[in-house]
Amino acid sequence: MLKNSQNSYGRVARLLHWLSALAVIAALVFIEMKDLFPKGTPMRDFMKAGHFQAGVTVLLLVLPRLAWRFANPLPRITPAPDKRIALASHAAHWALYALMLALPLLGIIALQNFGREISYFGITLPTLVSVSEDAAGNLMDLHETLGNLIMWLAIAHAVAAFWHHFSVKDDTLTRLTGPLR
Length: 181
Fold this sequence. Notes:
By secondary structure, the chain is an all-alpha fold. It has one domain: Fumarate Reductase Cytochrome B subunit (Up-down Bundle), CATH 1.20.950.20. About 70% of the residues lie in helices and about 0% in strands. The protein is built from 5 helices and 2 strands; from the N terminus they run H-H-H-E-E-H-H. It has a two-stranded antiparallel ribbon with strand order 1-2. Helix 1 packs antiparallel against helix 2, helix 2 (about 40-70) packs across helix 3 (about 85-115) and helix 3 packs antiparallel against helix 4 (about 135-170). About 20% of the residues are buried. The mean pLDDT is about 95.
């Protein structure tokens, strides 16, 4: 089943979700591991490049993911959650979507403000802004702050999924994974 049903997400939504999750995790791991290596070393440069490639992958995945989200009804949760829980869940999901859009764009624009040409797996990205070192520093600070936010929000998202599955005992998690044995 490609499309969502009343009770579960379809294969396309599942694939886009898990690929996005892997790309976000990869971006976070690469940037955190970067600090393990001295400045100017090939490994540190590799970690920064990996962070960038993963970040652009997030951007490229979130666009079709949002389109698919709008084109397909959400499966219902059984039993239905409290209205406050449902509202918090929707707010968290939309915050994650916004961050998956904003973070890669901020990163691209910040690097271009530093005067760097950017390529994604060998394809040079169009230049969106001219060089401004002051703006670049401010954008990098914002990018880092939002990066920390997406990390904690993603952790809360995963914890909430397990809480729903093991404590609340609803089908929130299995709508996206299929039956867990």
